[in-house]
Design a protein that fits this description.
This protein has 88 residues and is α+β, with helices and mostly antiparallel strands. It is built from one helix and three strands; from the N terminus they run βββα. The radius of gyration is 26 Å and the shape is elongated.
Length: 88
């Protein structure tokens, strides 16, 4: 929107707290809500349906931090292997 006096562009956002009984909706989903009796102090909306699921889920992959200059993790891994062999 454009401000009527200053002519600056700005966006209007609103957050709605909706009741989701089955806990199916995830972050990034496009949903349809309807007004309902109050569930709590701020929650007066009910999730009707999920219109579109969010795209581009992030997958967390654990990676060892490798120092490219010294190769520290490679050395530590070799030391751990040697220690495990010595214990046997």
């Amino acid at each position: 929107q454009t401000h009527p006096i200053y002519g600056k562009q700005y966006t209007v956002r609103r957050k709605y707290t909706a009741h989701d009984e089955t806990n199916k909706a995830k972050k990034g989903d496009t949903v349809e809500v309807s007004e309902h009796r109050p569930y709590s102090k701020n929650k007066v909306w009910k999730l009707e349906r999920i219109v579109e699921t969010g795209h581009g889920e992030l997958e967390v992959v654990e990676e060892a931090a490798v120092s490219e200059v010294t190769g520290e993790t490679e050395r530590k891994a070799k030391k751990a292997e040697k220690a495990a062999e010595e214990d046997k």
